[in-house]
Amino acid sequence: MKTTRVLITTAVAAAFSVPLFTSAQAGPAPVPKFEHEKCFSIARAAKNDCQTANSSCAGTSKRDKQGDAWVYVPKGTCEKLVDGSLQPKRA
To answer: How far apart are CA 48 and CA 79, in angstroms?
Structure first.
């Protein structure tokens, strides 16, 4: 009886911890292997690679072209894009 209770408690604890580990692993997008730069203010909502005023995780921007959200682009590309900026803009 006591062993069964311990096993059930362990199983429930493990089930609840999986979502915690999943969200803890969420973070910035992996750094690309090509020569890159961070380009702010061009990502669609929820398609940013990282960093907003309210979040440090990928895919968390709230709106298109959010000024403080960035995506990795090949080096030298950002300044060629409409609204692209190498520095964050006001959110």
So the answer is: 17
The helix (run of H) or strand (run of E) holding residue 2 is helix 2-25
Cα–Cα dist 8/51, whole Å: 40
Structure tokens at 74: 């090949």
Listed in order, strand segments (DSSP E) in 1-91 are 36-40, 70-74
Residue with tokens 């380009």: 39
pLDDT tens, residue by residue, 26-51: 678 899 999 999 999 999 999 999 87
Give the type of residue at 71.
V
pTM: 0.66
Q: For 34-69, list the strands marked E by DSSP.
A: 36-40
The Cα–Cα gap between 55 and 76 comes to: 26
